[in-house]
Structures are given as C-alpha cells and as structure tokens.
Design brief:
Order of helices and strands of chain B: EEEHEEE
Number of helices of chain B: 1
Strand content of chain A: 15-25%
Radius of gyration of chain B: 15 Å
Largest interface: A-B, 27 and 26 residues
CATH superfamily of chain B: Folate-binding superfamily
Structural class of chain B: mainly beta
Shape of chain A: globular
Radius of gyration of chain A: 21 Å
Strand order of the largest sheet of chain A: 6-7-5-15-16-17-14-18
Helix content of chain B: under 10%
Oligomer: heterodimer
CATH architecture of chain B: 2-Layer Sandwich
Shape of chain B: globular
Distance between the termini of chain A: 40 Å
Number of domains of chain B: 1
Strand order of the largest sheet of chain B: 3-4-5-6
Largest sheet of chain B: 4 strands, antiparallel
CATH class of chain B: Alpha Beta
CATH topology of chain B: Folate-binding fold
Largest sheet of chain A: 8 strands, mixed
Number of strands of chain B: 6
C-alpha cells in the first residue's frame, strides 16, 4: 500500500496539523475500455473490485457509482453482522463473510471498527422457541457458534430487556451468537475504495449507467452519463436498482424493490452493549459508538423506489421496542431514513452468471446484505474472473428459480423481513 | 405513505390496504403443459419497474375487495384506480 496508515503516519501528520493527509482514493475520468466494470460503488461492489484486483490479478477495472461512495445502502443499514443462518448454503456463505470480517481492518489497513459484541435473537412463543433451538443445532453442525439462552440468561446478558411474563410478547428465551456484532458501515466502503484504488481500480463517482450494449448473447459495453465505455465483463451490484439495470439488458429478475427503514435516537450513555433482534415483534436495536440507539424497522409491503417508507412501519417497530425496553420510553428519535432493498422470493441473494455472456448479477440481498459485504465481494469476484461460481455461492444462482432448488430462508433463519 | 382511492369506499390511508404486487399476470390456462422456464416466469420473475407500474391492491381493513392501481413507484403518486376485470387505462404505458 502506497500510503499506509500507522502510528508513525499519524504522528507525522499531527505535526503538520493534519492538513497533508493524502486522498483516500482517486477521482479519475473513465477510460475508453476496461477488462471488467462493476456497476454500483457500494460495499459489495467495491469489495468485488478489490478482490478482482487482489486475488484474480485483473488490473484494468472500473467501479461506476451513480451517486457517491457510501451514499447508498452501505451508509443506510443498521450495521449488524452475524452468520447464524439455518440452511447449509446460507451458513457457508455468511460464515465465510464473518471470517473475513474478523481480519478486515488489518487486510484493508483501515479501521472498520468491527465489534464482536454478540447478536441475540429473541423467542416470544413456543414455535419461536422450537425454531430457534433447531437453528442453534443446525448452526453448530455447520461450525457456527450458537447457544440457547433461557429467559433468566437473556435477562442476565441484556438486563434492560423486560422479561416480565405478562407482556404481550413475553421473552421465552433467545439464541446468542457471540462472534456476531457490528461494524462502522461507511468505513467498510471507504476502506475497500481505498484498497481498490491503491491497486489501480478506477472509482468513478457521479456516473450513472444508462444502457447496456449487447451483441447477440454477449455484452460489449455500457452507455453512461460520462459516455460509452467498452468492456466484456459487467458485474452489476446495484441493490434496489438491480431490476432497472437488468431491464436495460432485456432481462427480468425475481426481485421486488421495497423501502426498508431505520432510525436513530439522541445519543445517550452506554446502555446496551450487544445487538438484540426480535423477529416476531419486528424490532432490532443496538447502540452506536456515538451513543445513539440504532433501530431497524421493517419493509413496506409494496414496491417503491422513494427511499422514504411509511410512518405506520416505524410506529409498529417503536411500539415493540417500548414493550421490550420500557427504559427507552422518554427517548427522542433524531433521524429516520429509508433505503431501497431488493428482495428475492426465497429471501436469499443471487450471486450468479446470467444467460448473457459477460453479464453477472450480485443482488437480492434484501434486508440483510451488509453482513455479507466481504464474502459477497470475494465470491462475486471469483464468479466474474472464472466465469463460474465458487462452491460457496453455487447454490445462489439465478437458475434456482427455474429448477426450484430454492434456499428458503424466510423466517427460518431469523431473517427479519 | 399515501392515500389510495378505493373504488368501493373512497379515499383511505395506505395502511388500510395490502399490496398484491404486479397486476395482469395471467394464471396459466393449462398448468400441466408449462415448462420449468414458463413456471419460473409466472411465479417469480417480476418487472419491478421504477416508474409507472400496474398493480393489485386489497382493501384489507375495509371492504376487503381487490382492485387495480396505476402508481409511479419513483414517487408513490397514484395515477389511476380501476376495478378488477376492467381494461387498464391506455394512456399509461
């Protein structure tokens, strides 16, 4: 790395009043042609470019971003990272990502503030108890750490939870993954952007894709707001806008794009040192390093690209939060926002080739893509470079909707949809 | 969040309704004849349009009737509402 961050660079720059820090990544104009182009400069897209350059030796790569780095869903999610999924295929995918998270700050020479503070999933009825116990067993068979906690242990692990048996959704127990946690979300995008840029990847911001040029069954390039760019390999990582890009190539995807909301409170002293999720009442909460409560709500039921979301969704989430944590009743919410998430019918992602040669899609992450960022980038880079999937993402192909071999994670794996 | 003009009850808050997704996906006449590709197309593939979309809604907490809506998904503006079985308005394509 050209300008490695270290204690020495910090001291050196402190002596010049921090005015001479180098730019973290370049701001080039697009070249006429690239070996591969990644559409979408979010965490997944930048990670893809990073691993293409690092592990697959492609040097002439561009990442095209419609807005700015870290301005999309990468900067809008609630930063939860876990790998306690039910099915083998999902467990393999998400735990691959979690293992990369564990050394990501060192890998990128950039502090992504990965904090393994644990993620606890609550059970509120008998079926929840059975499902979650089954999931802890499945997780352990796949080498993923998971424990079942009874009500007293839940209370001990997170004392502010109301475990009274007479509330509408009593806490009957929960699962805990201790290796799970949170990370600073935009630092992940910045770290990957810096790392990729350092290896010669062109990161081109404010460049929107307007069309895909096809010659028969293969791609030839992209029409963009900065002109035509030639390439034989296009990796689309456009989250909520994946269908829009697919339509440009005459392709239809099994996706619906919906607003997903989150909100943060005013900052307070440390009160919750873990992440607690509850699917039945649809609320999850953690506390940021600034002290804000970070609260995730649900998706709207209808297709929309407005990045807003409905008020009633937030209201329901806050009702649930208040019942579980009566201590928060006087807190004020500071900000609320929405991001557009692309949801697959089986609530699992697509990391796949298409029937158009040179066109690859990484999409369908729905409401839980952030946790997979490093693994998703690594496996998508492998898929693009070798024109065939890695064994960890083979199950997440587009053809599963034709063959019927779905990876149905709806509800089964604590996916909070 | 927006208002929907139910053709049976009048204008109500969107939270009273449930979305039925893309409209005018015709149920296959002879399901036994369908190939896997055709099943995938019918069951899973969606236009997921950013812009003017034809969709079905149900007034779940009202008259519980189904009807069609033309909505711009880029700003949630509702352009037209029409009953089931009626021809979609031709001025939106």
């Amino acid at each position: 790395m050209k300008n490695k961050y270290s204690i020495f660079s910090l001291i050196k720059n402190a002596l010049s009043q921090h005015e001479n820090w180098q730019q973290a990544w370049g701001n080039p104009e697009p070249k006429k042609e690239y070996e591969a182009i990644i559409v979408g400069g979010g965490g997944h897209g930048l990670a893809t470019a990073y691993y293409l350059a690092k592990k697959h030796n492609l040097k002439n790569i561009a990442v095209l971003e419609k807005g700015w780095i870290g301005g999309g869903n990468t900067g809008r999610n609630t930063t939860i990272i876990r790998s306690n999924y039910l099915w083998d295929a999902s467990a393999g995918l998400y735990d691959h990502a979690l293992k990369l998270w564990e050394s990501l700050s060192q890998e990128l020479n950039y502090n992504v503030m990965f904090s393994q503070r644990g993620v606890m999933n609550l059970a509120h009825n008998l079926q929840d108890v059975r499902d979650l116990k089954r999931r802890t067993h499945a997780n352990r068979l796949n080498g993923i750490d998971a424990v079942w906690l009874n009500t007293e242990e839940v209370k001990k692990f997170c004392p502010i939870i109301n475990t009274s048996p007479d509330i509408r959704y009593p806490v009957l127990g929960g699962t805990l993954q201790r290796r799970a946690g949170t990370a600073r979300h935009d630092a992940v995008a910045w770290g990957y952007a810096r790392g990729a840029s350092d290896m010669g990847v062109d990161i081109i911001q404010n460049c929107e894709v307007k069309g895909i040029k096809r010659n028969g069954d293969k791609v030839e390039g992209l029409e963009t707001t900065k002109g035509f760019i030639k390439t034989n390999k296009i990796g689309v990582v456009a989250a909520g806008h994946s269908s829009v890009i697919a339509n440009m190539a005459g392709l239809k995807l099994p996706l619906e794009s919906k607003p997903l909301q989150a909100l943060v409170s005013e900052p307070v002293k440390p009160i919750i040192d873990t992440v607690v999720m509850s699917n039945a009442v649809h609320a999850y909460v953690s506390q940021s390093d600034k002290g804000e409560l970070v609260i995730g709500a649900g998706t709207d039921s209808y297709v929309s690209y407005t990045q807003r979301g409905s008020h009633n969704i937030v209201e329901e989430t806050l009702k649930a939060i208040l019942e579980l944590y009566p201590i928060f009743s006087r807190m004020k919410m500071l900000r609320q926002w929405g991001g557009i998430v692309d949801i697959c019918p089986d609530a699992s992602p697509i990391i796949s080739k298409t029937n158009i040669k040179g066109l690859y899609f990484n999409c369908g992450w729905g409401t839980g893509g952030f946790k997979a960022t490093p693994g998703s980038g690594d496996l998508f880079a492998h898929t693009i470079a070798n024109d065939e999937p890695h064994k960890l993402n083979a199950a997440f192909n587009l053809n599963r909707f034709v063959s019927g071999d779905l990876v149905d994670e709806h509800g089964a794996a604590a996916v909070a949809h | 969040m927006f208002l929907i003009n139910c053709p049976f009850c009048g204008e109500r808050d969107q939270s009273e309704f449930s979305s039925g997704g893309e409209a005018h996906i015709v149920r296959p006449k002879q399901p036994t004849e369908l190939s896997d590709d055709e099943w995938a197309e019918y069951l899973f593939m969606r236009k997921n349009i950013k812009g003017i979309q034809f969709e079905r809604w149900n007034h779940a907490h009202g008259c519980r009737k189904w009807f069609n809506v033309v909505r711009d998904t880029s700003n949630d503006k509702i352009l037209s509402v029409y009953k089931m079985g009626e021809k979609p308005p031709v001025n939106y394509k």
